[in-house]
Structures are given as structure tokens and as C-alpha cells.
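Query structure, 284 C-alpha cells:
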């Protein structure tokens, strides 16, 4: 039984498949804000619709009932769709959007990669963000998970071995590795103290990362202005506490020292794992 229904079969030229599903690790709503800006700036065509009854737990993601004067006029169900679009330069892309599946991750990963191969995708890119011990006063950095060392080095990575909870993107990435399709996850580092609020700088960094790594150029819309306004708000909040000011100064010193040592300004694996586990506990 197929997990998806093919709606259209567009003639695509070596598209990049971008994963931007709700529900997995997305501190500061970085991936969500990047996707929202891209959707607003482009026209998308639905290519395939996945079986939400088979993949989603509707008690966890309940449909929305629309009431008019007490009458049930319909339901809006959570969905998972594959959509096609083009960037400002005419480069073609596929976007997998909607809810992260609750069930059948292995079968879902096979189906997604099968679709990617069917449409001749040259690369798969996942978007996400996670809390890290970094200051909001420095540019947002991206790190990668990837199917090859070459791709990881293009973006940057956290050295050493780290064991952290995975989203469905990790399963899709591993399936890509099995079939020889290059895949890379772009992860924006969000200051751990700002991870529970919208952090537009993360969304902006992800859109810029798509341009640099996948040659996909999308209009960031209002994200630059929103990132500047967010920086001002956090500056004001931090300024009210000497403890917070000292925390930011220590983070700045840590990142700057690593930059000076030419290590990319990345926190250690233990620091990242600790912040990620704390973030996930708070989400639960």
C-alpha cells in the first residue's frame, strides 16, 4: 500500500528536495520562519499528498473543526505534502512540508527518497535549528549533518562523537546514504536563552545556507528586519540583569576564542548535547 498519492508529475530539472516538517527539533522556530518566508515569496504546486491517517496520530495533532452558528461546516486536517517551486534564478526545488509523522518512519523515509529519485533530485537538504551555548550578539552559525565528509565540511560540523535524539530527517538522511543520494541537514544554532521564542536570525541563516549549499535563492521577506528587531528586544531584556549580561559576555568570550583558534566558533559536543536535551525536556 502506497503512503502517498501522486497529484501532479511536473517535468523538473535536477531539483533539490528540501525537508521542512513541523514537530521536529526547531528551536526559535528557525525552520518554520524560513519556510514561511519562502512560501510567501513563491508559488508552489502540490506534487504528492501523503496518507495522514496512516502516518499521524490525530489525538496528538487534532484536526480543526470550523463552527458557524453552531453548525459543523468542516474539518481542516493536518497534512504532509510534497510541493514544487522555483527560486528567483529559475532553479527548481521540491519542498516536503507539513507534520512530522508519528508512525512508520522507515516506510515514510523510503517513500520520500523514492519520490526524490523519481523526480531526479540532485540533493536533499533538511532545515532545522537547535539551542546552543552561543550569544545573540554574534552571527547565527550553521552546522551540518551529512551523508559525506565533503558536504559536512562545506557547512561546518561539530567535531567528535555526539549521541542526541533524532527527528525523521535523520531517518531520511540515512536512507539517502543507502541509495547514494547526497543529503545534508542545515542546523541553525539558536542561543539557548532565546530557544523558546521566535528567533528570526535562525530562519534568515537557513535561507542563506540554502543559497550557499544548494544554489537555491529565495527572498527572505521581512526576516532581516525581524531579526534586527529581535536583537534589540533581547538586548533590552538582557540589559535589565547583570547576571544575564555576564552570561552573554562569557558566551561571547567562548565563541570569539574559538574563532581565534580557527575552530569555527562551535561549542563542544557535550555542551550542544546538554542544551538540546534540556530544550526537548522543556518542549515535553
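Result returned for the query:
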Amino acid at each position: 500500500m502506497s503512503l502517498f498519492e501522486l497529484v501532479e508529475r511536473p517535468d523538473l530539472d535536477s531539483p533539490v528536495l528540501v525537508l521542512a516538517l513541523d514537530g521536529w527539533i526547531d528551536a526559535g522556530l528557525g525552520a518554520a520562519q524560513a519556510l514561511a518566508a519562502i512560501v510567501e515569496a513563491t508559488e508552489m504546486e502540490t506534487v504528492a499528498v501523503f496518507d495522514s491517517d496512516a502516518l499521524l496520530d490525530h489525538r496528538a495533532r487534532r484536526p480543526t473543526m470550523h463552527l458557524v452558528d453552531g453548525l459543523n461546516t468542516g474539518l481542516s486536517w493536518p497534512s504532509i505534502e510534497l510541493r514544487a517551486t522555483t527560486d528567483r534564478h529559475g532553479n527548481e526545488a521540491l519542498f516536503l512540508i507539513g507534520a512530522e509523522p508519528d508512525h512508520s518512519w522507515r516506510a515514510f523515509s523510503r517513500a520520500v527518497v523514492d519520490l526524490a529519485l523519481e523526480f531526479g533530485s540532485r540533493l536533499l537538504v533538511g532545515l532545522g535549528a537547535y539551542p546552543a551555548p552561543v550569544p545573540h550578539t554574534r552571527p547565527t552559525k550553521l552546522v551540518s549533518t551529512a551523508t559525506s565528509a565533503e558536504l559536512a565540511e562545506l557547512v561546518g560540523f561539530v567535531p567528535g562523537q555526539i549521541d542526541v535524539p533524532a527527528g525523521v530527517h535523520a531517518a531520511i538522511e540515512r536512507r539517502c546514504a543507502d541509495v547514494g543520494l547526497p543529503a545534508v541537514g542545515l542546523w541553525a544554532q539558536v542561543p539557548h536563552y532565546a530557544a523558546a521564542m521566535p528567533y528570526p536570525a535562525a530562519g534568515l541563516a537557513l535561507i542563506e545556507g540554502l543559497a550557499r549549499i544548494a544554489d537555491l535563492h529565495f527572498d527572505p521577506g521581512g526576516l532581516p528586519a525581524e531579526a534586527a528587531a529581535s536583537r534589540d528586544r533581547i538586548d533590552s531584556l538582557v540589559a535589565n540583569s547583570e547576571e544575564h549580561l555576564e552570561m552573554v559576555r562569557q558566551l561571547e568570550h567562548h565563541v570569539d576564542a574559538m574563532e581565534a583558534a580557527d575552530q569555527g566558533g562551535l561549542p563542544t559536543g557535550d555542551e550542544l548535547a546538554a542544551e538540546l536535551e534540556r530544550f526537548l525536556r522543556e518542549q515535553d
